[in-house]
Specification:
Number of domains: 5
CATH class of the largest domain: Mainly Alpha
CATH architecture of the largest domain: Orthogonal Bundle
Number of helices: 26
Oligomer: single chain
Radius of gyration: 30 Å
Shape: globular
Strand content: 5-15%
CATH superfamily of the largest domain: DNAb Helicase, Chain A
Distance between the termini: 62 Å
CATH topology of the largest domain: DNAb Helicase, Chain A
Length: 591
């Protein structure tokens, strides 16, 4: 098993990385006073509530509460796990991630190391299974039949190799036997791994067998090219036509796109993406020159998939079946897309004629004619209003009122900008109103009220105030020289506060981001995240004296409570000799 990542290396990465540069490379930031702001990448909003502090190397959204340091941002935005985020940061500086075997490392680091190794095992196993399927395509007795099927669909050997296409034999446990029988002995751990990754399946009676049988196998790769799941397609009339891997520790279908890795490999500058429904559609389009198609692994495209695409291109064309199910899927995709639309981003829709699929269309039309059709796809605005108008009677006031009720929430979900303004003008034209009149009905973003609520939020206990200020300004702990420790203080949270103070004393130049990282994967991490974004309203020039005064108040509060406890005990049951001495000492100090 790989060793643990040393804490000092994690601290160094955090110190090396400017959070402004990192986030700005993915989400364009604007300077606003001491902070940088943007519309939050983690939830749809119209007005910027996402703030990034260069001083604290920390981000916080006052709308949805998302917050953290550079590692947290990579984990949330790029959908990486902890150790992958460390690898990503290290690669920016051409650094090798060191490992250590010392038992002195933090428990959290050890947990992440174990999780990382487990995932590495999963990735390696899935790659081995994919290789086995590819071999079966060449060597199995049914392999020739499958190859003929692929050729009939117009696929070449090169394109099959590019996408790693294979074959799962018509057998209940050929994969299980291949990977679980080791020298005649059955490997139960490997069987559990195959169950975890969805390659095997267990029925209600407890029998374990191969999930995929007699199917063309399409490995699903993540953005780094690792096999995370499979899609299997029958070559006859068996149902279901497509069978996908279930949700697993390394595969979440709402976050992945089939063919995305291959599209990135084929196109250094990915100008646009064509979203289709099936694996075979993606591969067939690539065969005929359209190497920028992906499949959404479901009937509609999720918010996370849209975010992934818009991080890599500015134009998305959704190509769905023309039937009711296809148009419903397109409508759900549109609703998911509206909060993601910003100036410079485009989304279009096109629909298949009855009985056609992208594969058959491009074979009939050829690449140039097919791309010409794509270029004529319906813009999102037209698709949206065409669908809404079809639901109302536009020649009546009641119908136009209904259109307003349907359209206003959708228009309001688009981020402020030129496109949002154009959508308002388009709606106003349909309603027969001036844009200024329509503006009165546009609901203001709830972010403003949330910001006010956060700003006026209750400060909480005095210990909570001290922790909140310390997590934002760790170096204040260095100003506590000569002030007693909090070890004996019996107030909620003082043990956490003292441990944080000790951590800063061990590394006096520690930043907020580094201090916060010490608590990742602990029960204290989420509350600390919230406090890191807390607005304490203490002027910068008063922070030092305020923090020291707060610590003194905590000590005083503890002494007051202790004096009350001893006084009560003295009256009820009497004190021990040590308690009498303590009581006398407290009274003397009180006087």
């Amino acid at each position: 098993m790989a060793g643990l990542i040393p804490q000092h290396f994690i601290d160094d990465l955090i110190a090396r990385t400017d959070i402004i540069d990192l986030i700005d490379s993915r989400v364009k930031l604007k300077k606003a006073g001491k902070s940088y702001v943007a519309c939050c990448p983690f939830h749809g909003e119209k007005s910027p509530s996402f703030h990034v502090s260069q001083d604290k190397q920390f981000y916080h959204c006052f709308g949805c509460g998302a917050s953290g340091n550079v590692i947290s941002f990579l984990m949330e935005y790029d959908r990486l796990d902890f150790v992958d985020s460390i690898d990503e940061l290290a690669s920016m500086y051409n650094l090798e991630v060191p490992r250590e075997d010392s038992g002195d490392s933090q428990k959290t680091a050890q947990q992440y190391s174990i999780e990382k190794q487990q995932k590495l095992d999963y990735y390696e196993l899935m790659e081995q299974v994919a290789q086995f399927f590819r071999q079966q395509l060449q060597t199995h007795k049914n392999g020739k039949t499958v190859v003929e099927y692929l050729k009939h669909r117009g696929l070449s050997g090169d394109i099959a190799k590019q996408f790693g296409i294979g074959y799962s034999p018509d057998d209940w446990q050929v994969v299980k036997d291949k990977f679980c029988l080791n020298g005649g002995r059955f490997d139960k751990d490997r069987e559990n791994q195959l169950l975890d990754t969805g390659v095997l399946i267990k029925n209600e009676k407890g029998r374990i067998y191969d999930r995929f049988r007699h199917r063309v196998m399409f490995p699903i790769r993540d953005r780094r090219g690792r096999v995370v799941g499979f899609g299997g397609r029958v070559i006859d009339d068996t149902m279901p036509k497509y069978l996908n891997s279930p949700e697993t520790p390394i595969f979440h279908k709402g976050f992945e796109l089939y063919g995305f890795y291959e599209a990135k490999q084929a196109n250094r500058d990915l100008k646009r993406l064509l979203v289709v429904e099936g694996y075979m559609d993606v591969v067939a389009l690539a065969q005929h020159g359209v190497s920028w198609a992906v499949a959404s692994l479901g009937t509609s495209t999720t918010t996370e998939q849209l975010q992934l695409m818009f991080r890599n291109t500015s134009e998305i064309i959704c190509f769905y079946d023309g039937d009711r199910a296809g148009r419903d899927a397109a409508w759900r995709t549109l609703q998911n897309a509206l909060p993601q639309l910003q100036d410079g981003r485009q989304m279009k829709f096109m629909f298949l004629p009855d009985g056609e699929d992208p594969d058959s269309m491009i074979r009939q039309l050829g690449e140039d004619a097919f791309i010409s059709l794509v270029n004529k796809a319906t813009p999102l605005s037209q698709f949206m209003f065409d669908n809404l108008i079809a639901q109302v009677e536009m020649d009546s006031e009641d119908g136009r009122s209904k259109l307003a009720n349907l359209a206003l929430p959708m228009v309001n979900s688009i981020s402020d900008g030129v496109f949002a303004q154009m959508m308002k003008e388009k709606l106003a034209k349909y309603l027969g109103l001036e844009v200024q009149s329509l503006e009165r009905f546009i609901k203001k973003s709830p972010v403003t009220s949330l910001q006010k609520k956060n700003k006026k939020a209750n400060r909480g206990s005095i210990v909570r105030q001290a922790i909140g200020i310390l997590i934002q300004h760790p170096k204040l702990a260095n100003e506590l020289q000569g002030i007693p420790r909090l070890d004996q203080v019996r107030l909620k949270g003082t043990d956490l506060l003292q441990e944080m103070i000790d951590q800063v004393h061990q590394q006096p130049d520690m930043s907020s981001a580094q201090l916060l990282e010490r608590w990742r994967n602990t029960e204290q991490y989420t509350p600390l995240l919230k406090l890191a974004g807390w607005q304490h309203d203490v002027a910068d020039e008063n922070l030092e004296s305020h923090f020291v005064d707060t610590i003194v108040q905590i000590l005083s509060k503890h002494l007051e409570l202790r004096l009350e406890q001893l006084s009560h005990k003295s009256r009820v049951e009497g004190l021990t000799s040590e308690e009498r001495q303590e009581y006398a000492h407290l009274i003397a100090n009180e006087l």
